[in-house]
Amino acid sequence: MIICEYKPSDCKEVAELFYNTVHTVNARDYTKEQLNVWATGRVDLENWNKSFQEHYSIVALDDKLIIGFGDIDKTGYLDRLFVHKDYQGKGVATAICDRLEKAVQKKVITNASITAKPFFEKRGYKVIKEQQVKRHGIVIINFAMEKSFC
User: Is 88 in a helix, a strand, or coil?
Assistant: First the structure.
C-alpha cells in the first residue's frame, strides 16, 4: 500500500469507492433508504474535486487501484475517510488517519457513522454528541467526535 496526495484525476474513482463502500460496508448499520440518500451515486465531481483540493487530501493505492481516501481541512475537521469494501480491516483507514492527524497536529473533529464510530474510539476519539442528520426527509444518525493532540 502506498499513500499519495490526491490528484484531480482521482476524483471519479474516489466517488465510486465512496458509493460502493457506503452501500456495502455501512449496510449493516443503516437501512437501504438511508444509504440511498447518503450516497446517491450522483456526486458533483467538480465540487468534490474543489473540496479535496482545498483540504489536505490523500489516497491509498494498491498497485494502481485506489483502496481508500481521506481529507482534513486546516481547522482539523476530518471530512471524509472511506476504505474499499475489499480492503476493510487491513490497516488502510489507520494509515490514512495517521497521515491526516499528523498534518494538523491539533484537535481533530469528525462526524463518524455508526459503522466508523468503533474505529475512531479505538484511536482515542471521544463522542461529543449523537446527531440526527436529515437528508431528503430521511434521518441518518452519526456522531460528532473529537481527539486532542495537546
Answer: coil
pTM: 0.93
Domain housing 88: 2-104
Pick the more confident residue, 58 or 105.
58
Query: How many Cβ atoms are within 10 Å of 15's Cβ, its own excluded?
Result: 19
- Domain assignment present for residue 117? The answer is no
* Distance spanning both ends of the chain, measured CA to CA: 30
CATH of the domain at 55: 3.40.630.30
The DSSP secondary-structure symbol of 57 reads E
Strand order in the sheet with 77-83: 2-5, 56-62, 65-72, 77-83, 108-113, 138-147, 126-135
Task: Please state the separation of Cα 22 from the chain's center in Å.
Answer: 10
